[in-house]
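pinned: reference chain
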Amino acid sequence: MNKIIDWKCPPPRKGLKGFIDRLFGPGATTAEYILQLGFAIAMAVIMLLYVLLAKLPWNIIQIIVPVYLAFDICGGIATNATSSAKRWWHRKERRTWKKDAQFLAAHFYMPLLITLAFFPRDWSFFIISYGYLLFAGFIIAATTLYLRRAVSLMFYAGALILSLYAIPLQPGLIWFLPLFYLKLLVSYLNVEEPYRPNKLETNEI
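pinned: its structure tokens
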């Protein structure tokens, strides 16, 4: 198998295309866009259908928040795992503990939205879930690269136990923490070689 590894990241384009580049990584291929957006849309639709078919007693905000988060988180799981995103988000100038810590901390809004929509008078869910993200994420980010994948999976296993037993959520939300931690602790934090398609496979947008 002919492997092409290329850490040289092209600069983001201007305008709307530049915004897209900064999310998905400059030079993303059509296949990568399809995987990312297709998975995000599919999971959002599945979430909406589940809410409607299960006839959950949720108000409109409680429906919108999980549907949006399903789109955001699942899209992020796929995006952060693509070679184009790895090359962009882990380029040389960003490959520092501080940059990783900032990226993780910026995702406070995800457990916050769940808290505001479902537990506005109880902040224990936000404190525990976000606290574990920072605790585990900061340690993983400080781990040497050759051990990072193993350490991230160990902390993800802990996240599953936390999700199922320490702060279990109601039906319709059980998926949130496992996928939230999968996106950030595993998909994002692991630095991997950015393989590129050969000339027969590539088709950039």
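why pinned: The longest helix spans residues 30-54. The mean pLDDT is 94.
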